[in-house]
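Morning, I've got a small favour to ask if you have a moment. I owe you a coffee for this, so here goes:
>
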Amino acid sequence: MQRYTVTDFMREFRTDFDCLEYLKELRWPDGIFCETCKRVTEHHPMKARRSFSCQSCGWHVHPTAGTIFHKSTTPLKLWFYTIYLMAQTRGGISAKQVERETGVTYKTAWRMCKQIRSALDERDRVLVGMVEADETYIGGRPRWKGEQKAGRGTRKTPVLGIVERDGGKARVFVLKNVSGRSVLPLIRDNVQWGSTVYTDELNVYHAVGGMMGYKHKTIHHTKQKYVVGDIHTNSVEGLWSLIKRGISGVYHSVGPAYLQSYCNEYVFRYNHRNDMAPMFKTFLRRAVIPSQSHGQPRLESAVDL
C-alpha cells in the first residue's frame, strides 16, 4: 500500500477549493458533459457556491450532489480530514477524538463519522473458492456468570461473518438471531454456489452441504479441535479479533441499531488492506462513488430457502 502521511494530506488539500476540484476530477475524469450544450465543455468554479459553471451556457454542476457532503455546511477540508483520520487507523477513531482534532462540535463529528460509515457497505461481488462462515456475539451484558464465555444465548448481538481465504474479501451481517432463516439466506446470497464452505459444528450450518449444494467441511470446536488439515475457521476468527478489539478499545460499546455500520467500517479496511492506493483515497472514492448495494448476479443454489 502506498504511503500517505498527514504532510501529504496538507500539501494536497490546502483549501476547500482543492477538495472541490478533487471531487470534480473524481466524478468527471473525462470532463463534464453539459446537459444544455449536449457536449463536454469547460467548467469554471463559482466563488460563492460549491459548483462549477459551463463556460458556454452557464449551466451549473455540483460535485457534492448525491454524496455524503451534500447540503453540509461543514467545510470540505474538515470532511476530508475526518475521512483521513478514519482511514489511517486499523482500530477506528471516535467522534470525540474527531471533535478534538477538527474543532467541530461533537454532534457534527458524530454525524460526519456516521455519514462516512454509511458509504462503506460494499457487496460488489459474491465470495468464491474456499470460504469460512462463523457467528459471534458483540456488545451487551451477560445475564449470568459464565455467559460471557459461552456466547450463545446472551444478550449480546449475534453477528455472522463470511470470509474468503488467501487474502480475499469478507462480509459481516448483524442478525436478530442465529437460526437457519437468518443465516442460510445470507450464505446463499453472498457465496457462489459450488464453493467450499468451512464452519464450526453449529446445527444451523448442517444444510450448507446438503440442500444448499455447497462443499461443506466442519471443524469441531467443542472437541477442542481447531485445525485439521485445511479445515479451520482461522480467517474469520482473525476478522472477529480486529472488530472486537477495535470496538472495545475505541468505542467501548455499540448499540445494535448502529452495529452494522461499525462492522462495515472494519470490513472495508479488511477488504482493501492489500490495495496499492492509500487507504484514505480508497475511503474518499467510496464516499463519492458508492458501490452497488447488492452486487453481481449469482447462480442460484438447489434450494429456495
Remarks:
- Residues 292-305 have pLDDT under 50 and may be disordered.
- The chain has ten helices and ten strands.
- The domain at 130-263 is CATH 3.30.420.10 (Nucleotidyltransferase; domain 5).
- The CA atoms of residues 97 and 109 lie 9 Å apart.
